[in-house]
Each structure stands twice: as structure tokens, then as C-alpha cells.
Design a protein that fits this description.
flat, 2 helices, single chain, mainly alpha, 68 residues
Amino acid sequence: MMTLTNQNSVSERTSVTQNETFPSDTEISRRVMRIRSGWSDGEKVRRRREAQERFADLLDKLVGDTAA
């Protein structure tokens, strides 16, 4: 009688990085404000409209998913 064993020949790797630190909310806000400061008024209006449209689309999809 033969006995088979299942042994993986590939070692498992972890994807955790060492010493990973995430920026604080304050640092993220500072970076965003630095980027926005270079935008023209027209660019700010255009980006705001696009964001509002994406948000409305997201809400429509969420409402549609709950109705289904």
C-alpha cells in the first residue's frame, strides 16, 4: 500500500514590511493643501464638480444594491 503526503515545496512569504509607519491625518491634510494650493480657481471648480458626480454615482449604486 502506498501513502502519499502533501508537502508544499514553496516556502511561504509574508508581505508585512518592517517598520512601516503611516502618515498622520495632519500630515495627509498638509500634503493635500500643498497640492491644492497650486490649482487655479477653474481647476478647483472642475475637481469639485467631478467629486460631487462620483459621490452621487456611488450613492446611486449603494441604493440600487440595497433595493435588489
